[in-house]
Amino acid sequence: MVADASGNLYGATYITGYTYELSLSGGTWIYTTLLQLSTGDGPVSDLTLDSQGNLYGTLPGGGLHQKGSVFELSHANGIWTYTDLYDFTGGSDGEGPGGSVILDASGNTYGTAQSGGTNGYGTVWEITP
Predict the structure, then answer these.
(1) Looking at residue 30, which CATH number applies to its domain?
(2) What are the pLDDT digits (tens) for 48-70?
(3) Can you spell out the DSSP letters for the chain?
(4) What residue numbers bound the domain in which 45 lies?
(5) Is the pTM of this model over 0.85?
(6) CA-CA distance, 45 to 33, in Å (whole number)?
(7) pLDDT in tens, 80-98
(8) Domain count of the chain?
């Protein structure tokens, strides 16, 4: 899980693909479902939180080509919105992203894929804004 500046915790379930928030209120943790990302496999790694409160992650399967995807969850006016940032093809770009993503100050997103790539052993990828 990842924590925001207010101490809220964010995470995702692998089996069902639910993303959630745990917030502390009066000494009790409150569970809130944000979105269901997938009806199959969800993220296998921690979500990443940016300075604006957006969440980023990877899905090892699914996406347009069923080879995995990178997503962003943004929050505005009490509503979480899913944005598909990239769908892997299983070719030179890789297949099955499985780790957490890294964000840099320029808005680039980085991560790894478990297979695919030039020799089939995976890739290190970058998504630019």
Answers:
(1) 2.120.10.30
(2) 999 999 999 999 988 899 999 99
(3) -EE-TTS-EEEE-TTT-EEEEEEEETTEEEEEEEEE--SS---SS--EE-TTS-EEEEESS-TTTTS-EEEEEEEETTEEEEEEEEE--SSTT-EEE-SPPEE-TTS-EEEEEEEBSTTSB-EEEEE--
(4) 2-127
(5) yes
(6) 18
(7) 999 999 999 999 999 999 8
(8) 1
